[in-house]
Amino acid sequence: RGLVDLALLAYEFGKHAAPGPLVDCNVAVLALSGQAGEMQQAALGEVLGGAAIASVCLGAAPWHMPGEASVTVRRDGDDVVIDGAIKPVESAAQAGYFVVTGDSDGGMSQVLVPADTPGVTVKPLKAIDVTRRFAKVTFAGVRLPASALIGAFGQADAAVARQVQHAAVILAAESVGAMDAAFEMTLDWTFNRYTFGRALASYQALKHRMADMKSWLEASHAVSDAAAEAVADGNDSAAELASAAKSYIGVQGPELCQEGVQLHG
Predict the structure, then answer these.
(1) Which pLDDT band, with edges at 50, 70 and 90, does 129 fall under?
(2) Can you tell me the distance from the alpha carbon of 189 to that of 205, in angstroms, rounded to the nearest whole number?
(3) Residue 167: which residues within 8 A CB-CB, separation 6 or more?
């Protein structure tokens, strides 16, 4: 149950605001695992050994309606040709490889693209998160042999859905770690900060707000853990729980942190 173990590590990453492309590299490893191609195995070895970073370019996704994909992958003889752009891509400027998902005839296709391939352009973006670096990646007629495909052409839908579930689980666990740290700092502050001769924690109105934050935190722990176990085991509820974790924590995580800022004055 590697994903459950990884969720524990992601939680610690979030709790300590640890930098690094944890999500992208692990999703890329998931995509490359089990692939027999020489290029894929070489890239997998570099990422696992820490010699290279792999970033995920999700130019097509399970939730896209027809025509919404920002990246296309087409066959041209014995080659595949990639066109389009995707942003934001984490650690794109530092990546040695891109796992590119694009729209194709019949479904989605995934291609392993070395970062130095002709036609690939990376433009750094400004972001608020100081633990991550993002960029826009453009593919202008990028041509690679069909051996660069991850899986079969136009048949990556199920694999991409599974990768999205894993990404949601890792991000949820990381977010819960950050929520935990924010809650602990705020709780300590309310006990140690005095106003009008009393600790902030003694005021009833603030107790109610802390109780709300604690309930959001515990619910986030629960849904994050449930999603990790369901996706790791491949349960029928995996997709639903991964989406529930992403939805709930995506709302309550920022809300908890905002409350922490407000309570700090």
Answers:
(1) confident
(2) 16
(3) 23, 27, 56
| CA-CA-CA-CA dihedral for 1, 4, 89, 12, to nearest 10 | -140
Which pLDDT belongs to residue 56? 98
> What length does the chain have?
265
Contact call for residues 116 and 107 (beta carbons, < 8 A): no
What's the pLDDT band for 178 if we cut at 50, 70, 90?
very high
H helix count then E strand count, the chain: 6, 9
Please give the pLDDT value at position 55: 98
Tell me the three state secondary structure of residue 107. strand
d(CA 79, CA 148): 9
CA dist list (Å): 12 to 16, 221, 252: 6, 13, 19
What is the mean predicted confidence (pLDDT) over 174-179?
98
Q: Which is it for strands 71-76 and 79-90: parallel, antiparallel or unpaired?
A: antiparallel
